[in-house]
């Protein structure tokens, strides 16, 4: 299940890609399939080991084209172990809401992104996220949990302040918002509640089968209740007037 829309965020074979805070690796895997030279980085060593295993399995199965490479590594988003201008593309999906120093993370991403490079940032959308917070303290009051809710204009302003030029936005995963509302209402860790189990089965069916009806429904509902807000930006070749 991809949050970044690669029809709006073009990726060319050979592009150097950093998937920052890669988690289970969903975007890194897609970039690898598209022929990129991918680095998947996360602070969670267990997840990184799993991502590395999947990269190896994809290579063995021939899922990535010739020339594509993939590396999984542990690292700190506030101190990236790469030189300036190392990447053509940076993706950070559902990560910034967890990090106290989000401006520091943006600064590091801009540093390692080459001039003219592209960045995709996704965060939980303000409205659906507010509902989750209202329904459940356990949803966000946990170690490593969500510490802020972004308004779209706030995130875009921080991206501009970091020296990026946003060029597009959209919302994604409308069908997932009701699932998280149910989770919060019945207990975030209570997967046995009948409504939660039933809706989860629906989502799994939708992800596996990709029926046209639910694709059309989600496309219509995304502007209203899309779970994620997605912003795309470029790093200027030279600082824009008024930028530091």
From TrEMBL:
<feature type="domain" description="Methyltransferase type 11">
    <location>
        <begin position="18"/>
        <end position="120"/>
    </location>
</feature>
<keyword id="KW-0808">Transferase</keyword>
<keyword id="KW-0489">Methyltransferase</keyword>
<dbReference type="GO" id="GO:0032259">
    <property type="term" value="P:methylation"/>
</dbReference>
<dbReference type="InterPro" id="IPR029063">
    <property type="entry name" value="SAM-dependent_MTases_sf"/>
</dbReference>
<protein>
    <submittedName>
        <fullName>Methyltransferase</fullName>
    </submittedName>
</protein>
<dbReference type="GO" id="GO:0008757">
    <property type="term" value="F:S-adenosylmethionine-dependent methyltransferase activity"/>
</dbReference>
<dbReference type="InterPro" id="IPR050447">
    <property type="entry name" value="Erg6_SMT_methyltransf"/>
</dbReference>
<dbReference type="InterPro" id="IPR013216">
    <property type="entry name" value="Methyltransf_11"/>
</dbReference>
<dbReference type="Pfam" id="PF08241">
    <property type="entry name" value="Methyltransf_11"/>
</dbReference>
């Amino acid at each position: 299940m991809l949050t970044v829309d690669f029809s709006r965020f073009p990726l060319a074979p050979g592009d150097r890609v950093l998937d920052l805070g890669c988690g289970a690796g969903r975007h890194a895997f897609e970039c690898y399939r598209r022929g990129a030279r991918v680095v998947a980085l996360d602070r969670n060593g267990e997840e990184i080991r799993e991502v590395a295993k999947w990269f190896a399995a994809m290579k063995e199965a021939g899922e990535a084209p010739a020339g594509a490479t993939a590396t999984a590594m542990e690292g700190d988003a506030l101190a990236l172990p790469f030189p300036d201008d190392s990447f053509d593309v940076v993706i950070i999906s559902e990560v910034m809401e967890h990090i106290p120093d989000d401006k520091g993370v943006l600064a590091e991403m801009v540093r390692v992104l080459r001039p003219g490079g592209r960045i995709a940032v996704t965060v939980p959308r303000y409205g659906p996220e507010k509902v989750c917070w209202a329904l459940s303290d356990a949803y966000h009051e946990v170690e490593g949990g969500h510490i802020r809710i972004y308004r779209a204009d706030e995130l875009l302003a921080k991206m501009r302040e970091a020296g990026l030029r946003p060029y597009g936005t959209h919302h994604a995963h409308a069908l997932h918002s009701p699932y998280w509302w149910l989770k919060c209402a019945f207990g975030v860790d209570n997967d046995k509640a009948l409504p939660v189990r039933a809706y989860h089965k629906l989502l799994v069916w939708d992800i596996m089968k990709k029926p046209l009806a639910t694709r059309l429904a989600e496309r219509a509902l995304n502007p209203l209740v899309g779970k994620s807000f997605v912003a795309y930006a470029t790093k200027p070749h030279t600082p824009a007037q008024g930028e530091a």
